Amino acid sequence: MNANRPYVDKTHPEVYKALAQTATASRKAARAAGLDDGLIEIINMRVSQINGCRTCLSIHAPAARKAGIDQLKLDVLPSWREAEIFDDTEKSALLIAETLTILDKSADRDEIAAEAGQHLSTEQISAVEWTVTLINAFNRISIASNHPVVGAKAV
Predict the structure, then answer these.
(1) CA 71, CA 58: separation in Å to the nearest integer?
(2) Using an 8 Å Cβ cutoff, are 151 and 57 in contact?
(3) What are the backbone angles phi and psi of residue 116, rounded to the nearest 5°?
(4) Over the stretch 44-89, which tens digit does the pLDDT of each residue have?
(5) Burial group, residue 118, by CB count within 10 angstroms (0-12, 13-18, 19+)
(6) pTM of the model
(7) Helix (H) or strand (E) run with residue 30 in it
(8) 36 DSSP 8-state letter
(9) Distance between CA atoms of 139 and 142, rounded to whole angstroms?
(10) Plot region of 52 (φ>0 → left; ψ -120 to 50 → alpha; else → beta)
(11) Alpha carbon of 151 to those of 54, 127, 147: distances in Å?
């Protein structure tokens, strides 16, 4: 057998389309729960940074700026815990994002939800968790497919 590395989204477009529709529904639910596009994009950025997904970073950094996120906030995003420029809602969402991306079996999900619940409603926690779950899926699709940086010129 002489198989090539596939673009999984192109090889099975119906599966990718279903995932994209799920992402659209997730964003709609997040907005209905009171989360703005800027926060959603910060979550997408942080998860993509952790996963090392160059394609998703090249998509979500411009989307974050378009949603009104200041460049400084994007620059220091990996150190959000120490950076005083993130508000409590952002910190709560980023805590969920990191702990759902880097799975630690010793992590107490109830404790994490309780901590986040000081600044997010149950609906918002659920919306953040859906956002994290889906960007992790998109990261893995892009990494598996070896998708390029969006908008990059060959060097």
Answers:
(1) 14
(2) no
(3) -65, -35
(4) 999 999 999 999 999 999 999 999 999 999 999 999 999 999 999 9
(5) exposed
(6) 0.94
(7) helix 13-32
(8) -
(9) 5
(10) left
(11) 11, 29, 12
Measured between alpha carbons, how far is 15 from 20 in angstroms, rounded to an integer? Answer: 9
**Are the C-beta atoms of residues 35 and 123 closer than 8 Å to each other?**
no
Q: Which two tokens stand for residue 39?
A: 């926060």
The SS3 of residue 53 is coil
What is d(CA 24, CA 53) in angstroms, rounded to the nearest whole number?
20
DSSP state string for 57-125: HHHHHHHHHHTT--HHHHHTGGGTTT-TTS-HHHHHHHHHHHHHHS--TTS-HHHHHHHHTTTS-HHHH
Query: How confident is the model at residue 5, as a pLDDT?
Result: 83
| First-last CA distance in the chain | 33
Tokens of 129: 């968790």
